[in-house]
Amino acid sequence: MWQLREGTHAILADDGGAILDERTGRWTHLTPTASSAIMILLAGATEHQAVERYATRYGISTMQAAADLRTVTDALTSQGLAVTEIASASRPWWRTWCR
Question: Residue 11 and residue 64: Cα distance in Å, rounded?
């Protein structure tokens, strides 16, 4: 499960977006595809549903969609803007889509 960290606020649109970090007062600007990925993830979709929706929206394979979503979540997590709870440390959800 992925979610924005407490104290972050997202402004998301199809043409891009931004995330405000209350701790630092800094904005992180998002590309349209990153904004779309976050909208899908925050919509309460399961990982499987998020990958399927993203793949369908952009006409790409589920393997590529999983990699794209992982890139966005990894970037935001490394910046301290999001947290990830992986059900199994030995098999992250995105690895099931990279076969």
Answer: 25
